[in-house]
Structure formats: structure tokens, C-alpha cells
Amino acid sequence: MAEQIIPIFVAFAALLALIAVRVPIGLSLITVSFFGIAYETSLRAAIGSIGRLPYELATNWSFSAVPMFLLMGFVAAETGLTSGLFSASRALLRRLPGALASASVLASALFAAASGSSVATAAAMSRIAIPEMLRRKYDDGLACGTVAASGTLGSLIPPSILMILYGVYADVSIGGLFLAGVLPGILSVAIYIGMIVTRCAINPELAGGTQAEPDETFDRKTVLMAILPLPILIAIVMGSISMGLATPTEAGALGALGAVGIAVVSGRFRWAAFRSALTQSAISFAAIFIIVVGGALLTRYVAVSGLSRLLGDLFADNAAGPLALLLAVAVLYIVLGMFIDSIGLLLLTAPLILPLATSLGIDLIWFGIILIKLLEIGLITPPIGLNIFVIHSALDGKVALPAIIRGVAWFIAMDILTLAILIAFPVITLWLPNSIM
Which one of 15-24, 26-35, 234-243, 318-327 scores highest in mean pLDDT? Predict the structure, then answer.
């Protein structure tokens, strides 16, 4: 067994070393997997795999949903459909203690659902919401922690790029994953806002010494027009899937078309913005595609190396059950999530953990939602959570890192509570897909 384990250990150590020295994760996955397959089988087999896998992925109907949802998000951002989210959320939640922080949660969740990127959401909202909270004398930690954590919600709220990639790798229904993410996403938003309201009600100084935002006149029509586009897009996507009218790929195309239509109706459509959205979608998809090819190649290497069987035997020999696997994955994701982006980490680990989950009889749709939640926790886990440094950089160091970390700790605790609820009550995740599909 030792002779079998050593090459695998060397391969994964080399992979982590390449990532550590900032070799792009897609290239790292392809390089290590190529040589691993060549070692386990033959150079000819490795060349055959690297030549065949990109074509297989490019012709995968489910995977073609990714560029459609990317286009929907970029059209929404480039045409300004997301620009009024914070002010609209602020008006809707103005009577709550800590209203600006609560509004940041709602606005970030909607923005992230459209953009598909937690880091991009944190960067954008840190320039919109945090300065306003600091101007109102909000606690530094609460202001920064709210935006850092809220940016991670987009992966749970469909449509989600992570869900599509997981669905392709796990060979489960992407529509089912989208439906499964609705209630956990809403639960996460509610728990975040509940924590903020409770803390600010007990200690108003956290929100600048006021229990709620002062009553300000606002135009209801303007507020609704600012906040409605993204819920409408999500309703188009989820409605077409849940009613069986469209596949996820077709729903993504409808969402992209819907974003263009809303931009035209609202008078925000500009050809320059549309061209920019097309360009950014192509660039983003190309980057994701390289990572996906690397992940598929790693899956092939894990299969020929026998690692999945070894891990399965290890769990069987120690009578380890689903809870043991969840604990092991939680530690792995939270630690690695501090260094590796969500997409890269998912594709790096999926070949190892999915066969184990299958062998233990775990529902893969429920398991996917748990994994995605863990992936997003890693982005805000100190000391090197990516979102923490994104916010620190966006604010030009005006808020010290310890203050941001202090603020994020409350949201990590809420994420752990959410995870515990989702693990204890799988029905929260599975009720919608089981009822509709």
C-alpha cells in the first residue's frame, strides 16, 4: 500500500506547492494530473486524456449553462441594474436596528446572485456600503464583517456557477441543486440579519448610537425599480426550471435575454455596455474552462491511481460514517479556502470526496449545498480569508485587519449555526427539489 500511496502524496504535494507559488490553479491541475496519469499508465494515455477531455467538456450540455449565467450577471452589472440595490435595500429595511448593515446583507446577496463571484461582490459593496456605514459611525468590525460575509451568499442563492460545476462533476440535476439552494440561502440571509438586529438592539452604539435609520422621504416607485430587476431575473430562471419549461442552460439563456430586456425597458441599455458584458463573459468563461479541464483531468488521475478505493477502504475499516466525512471535509475546506478560490477548491477536492459520499449513501444534492456553504466560509476565515483582504485593499487600509477579522467572527459563528441546522434538518434543503421535481 505504501508504494501506492507515496506517488499520490507526491502528486498532491506538488499540486499544493504550485498553487502556493501562484501558478494558476488550472495550469497546476493540468500539469500534475498529466504527469500523474503518465506515471500510473503511459505517456500515450496521458496525451489522449488531455486531448479528449476539453472536447468532452465543451460538448457537455449542462456545462454550457455557465457562460449563459455569466452573461446574465455581466449584463446586469454593466447596464446598472445592480447599482441601486443598496439604496433600495436601505429604504426597505430602514426601521430595523442596524438598518445599513441589514441592507448590506440583502443587497450583497442579490448582487452576488447575479455576479456569481463572492470576491467581486465584496469588492463592489465595500466601495458602496462600507463608507456609508462608517460615515454613520457604525462599528468598523460590523461594517466590514457584514460586507465580507454577505458577499459569500451568492453561491447559495441560485443561479450559481458553483452549483452548475458541482452538478456536472457529481452528475446530479442542476435544476435540483438550484431549487435546493433557495431555502438555505434565505435561511442564511435571515440569520445574518437576525444577528445584526439583535446586536444593534442590545448595543445601539454598534450602529452609531441610533436604533434605526431616520425616516427619510423616498419614492416607492424608484425603490421598487432599483430592487426588482434581480428578483425578476431569478424568478425567470427558477420558474422556467421548476415548471419544466427549460433546462438550466435554456434558463440561463432566458436570464441573459431577460437582463437585456429589462435594461432596454429601463432605458439603461447601451451597446458599449453590452459589448463589455460579452467580452467579460468570454474571458471569465475561458478562465473557468481551464480550471474545469484541470479538475476533470485530476478526476481521471484519481481514478487510475486507486486513491478513491484507498480512501473508501480507510473509511470502511474505521467504520466512519457520513458525519465523520462531513467533519473531515469541513476542516479541509475551511483551511484550504483561506488560500484557494471557491471554484478551484471545489474542482481540486471533488474527485476525492464525491466517491466517498456516494459509497456512504449520502444524498448528493444535499451534500452539494453543504459543500458550497463550507466553500464560502473559507473565504472569510482568518487569518487569510480572501474576502477579508479584498475589503482591506478596497478601503486602502483605512480599517485595520484585526477590526475586520473581529467583525467577521460573528458571521462565521452564524454560518456554523446555519450549517448545523442544515445538517440536522436535511428537509430544509431537499423539500423544494423533492416537491417540485
Answer: 26-35
Report if residue 121 sits inside a domain: yes
Structural domain contains residue 14: no
Q: Which amino acid is at 52?
A: R
For 38, half-sphere exposure in the C-beta direction (CA atoms, 13 angstrom radius) is: 12
Distance CA 373, CA 415 (A): 8
Q: Are 53 and 300 in contact (CB under 8 A)?
A: yes
Structural domain includes residue 307: no
Q: 282 is written with which cell numbers?
A: 468570454
Between 13 and 87, name the one with better pLDDT. 13
Is residue 367 situated within a structural domain? yes
CA distance linking residue 404 with residue 382, whole number of Å? 10
Residue 364's alpha-carbon distances to 114, 169, 359, 414, in angstroms, are 25, 11, 11, 24
Residue 329 has pLDDT above 80, yes or no: yes
Burial, 377: exposed, middle or buried (Cβ in 10 Å; 0-12, 13-18, 19+)? buried
CB-based contact 206:138 (threshold 8 Å):
yes
Residue 98, Cα to own-chain centre: how many angstroms?
Answer: 26
98 phi-psi bin (left φ>0, alpha ψ -120 to 50, beta other)? left
> Is it true that the peptide bond before 383 is cis, omega within 30 degrees of 0?
yes
CA 139 from centroid of its chain's CA atoms: 27
For residues 347 and 165, the answer to whether their CB atoms sit within 8 Å is yes
CA–CA distance, 253 with 275 (Å, rounded to integer) = 17
